[in-house]
Request: fold
Amino acid sequence: MDTRNAPRTGLRHGLKLVAALLMVAMAAVPALAKETVKVGFIAPLTGGVSANGIGGRNSAELAVILRNQDPKAKYHYEFVAMDDECKPNIGVQAATKMASDKDVVALVPHYCSAVALSTVKIYHRFGLPVIVWGAVHPGITYDNDFKEVHRINGTMINQNEEAARFMTAQGYKTFAVMHDTTDYGKSHKDYFTKYLAENGGTVVGVFGVTSDQQDFTAELTKIKALNPDVVYFGGLTPLGVRIRSQMEKIGVNAQFEGVSGIKSDSFIEGLGPELAEGCLSFIEGAPVEKLPGGAFFAKAYEEQKFAQPAEAYGPFAFAAMNLFLDTIEKVGPDRKKIDKAINTMGSVDSIVGKVAFDDHGQNTVATISKYVVQDGKWVVWEDSEYAGGKRSLVKK
Amino acid sequence: MDFGLLTQFAINGLMLGMMYALVAVGFTLFFGVLDVIVFSHGDVVMVGGFAGLTTFYWLDAIYPGLSHGLMLLWVALASMASMALLGIVMARTMILRLRSAPPLNTLLATMMLGTVLREAVRLFYPNGSNPKPFPALLPDWSLDMGHLSLRLDNLILFSLGALLIVSIHLLITRTRLGMAIRAVAQDAETARIMGVNFNAIVFLTFALGSAAAAFAGIMNGLYYNEINFGMGLLLGAIGFSAAVIGGLGNIYGAILGGFAFAFLQTLGAVALPFASAYKDVFAFGVVILIMAWRPTGFIAEKTSERV
Reply:
């Protein structure tokens, strides 16, 4: 190779590159440069429940992408996502980082209740308006008077009330209750047993399990001897998969009923369609296709070609982020003004239906949907062959 | 409590105990030969499980009609061989290099390696953060009598595990290689002078221990029909505790410790009046008591170090 020419060629290439970059930059930046506003998002992006967290992140980011494509938007939005690993200590770090960044004016945080419970006071202290998108523990909104904390999804109270009512209406009488020993699992157990008693069901045994437990054979053997109609599990997907799968090994013949925490595609993937068949779950809101803006959301999500599905709570993350973006457009990127506007907005439409926050920032419009696994998919109960009578649940 | 139920609990406990023993054997081998605690061992179990699962997917794609028995043989061989290799690489790149450093460094380095392995599976295995279904490669025949369900697959798994431990034991006590391992364990310097290839023996030990871990991983997968990236963490802690209460450096001790821990856990879940949530607290609590009572474990190493 003739090295004498090399520097000149290099220079020429460099110039070409600069020119190309300039052209790309000019095409990308609109004629009038908009002020950039940062909006945050926190979820478990790694770890056992990351499927839900990543689905939520994609959905919230989708709201930002769509807004940035809108020529009428007053601001350019920068989406900042952080990982809380579903661990309170990590969540507190992420929350503090977000809240202390003055440029972040609004935040859509948390899928895990244990994390949200330990971070809400940080948002309050820093005056950062947040709308929780997925954590269901009632205490997140009801155990405090923080004006900065809102939640778009319903709580586990609504969920378990409906679950207890539904299961007893199906004719089930005896229930073995398993739960993980986090705040999340314990509260699920508390609300479910409370409403179960009101509906005339009987709890034959309660089994707390640690959230990283692998072996449930001892608990399940005990449950087998108790011979309940239903095994209820208050907890998240990884444990749900193990318990359901070990029920089969031990030969526990009972209907498996989970909470919103197991309603993810990874529950079915982890078990395989055969074992997952007939498992029940209850969740706030309605399936994407039944939401007022569901078709729009599903189409927009599809178009972005995200590598992972939106999962159950994705639409909530989208709606929460969108609510913030609407508010920022109205009142400007100022934490105090945004918070005030959100607290006084009344009832507004969103893709998950009407949203209206009560004094505690809790969305009061809670629809609960029932799901059953049918042929490897979560199907809304009313649309399933189980409700139609073609298939039947265990012990029916 | 009726007899069937009691037997069922005993079987559950035995299966758990075998898995713990397999992990504990690794801890005890490494400690016996090199006086090191390899904290990444639990995660090697997990990687072994995932290696087995990957082998299964490959085989299933290439030879879809392969019988389950042959499939299992290949899955086990591939997983054990690859973990043996991982063990050798670990020994060569970390353990031997850190030999002259304070033991704390080895401890920390292996702990971090464990995190690296765990995160690597979580991040790089397709959809690695979700639990993965493990194929049922053993016959699912079972004998049901009341509360008792005797499963053939459990029996096979248990026998295979026992066979593996017995083979390792025979290798160490009855062969020339085993003699070399024992020689290095007793006094590395003297063994070297006697012509024992020190490095080769260390590699062999790590290959053995890690292969046993791989088997534990596959056993875990077949027993629970599910594996996940986080399963090694607790298994590692339990395997280590089992090795310690049994007496670090002694294979019988590891086996004894493994079953003792499983017994404690089962007892904690079954017999204690309060909720089963505390079974691990109970089991680890008793381990602390045992350590206070017998610091050397049930069976102490024959040659205790003289200061």
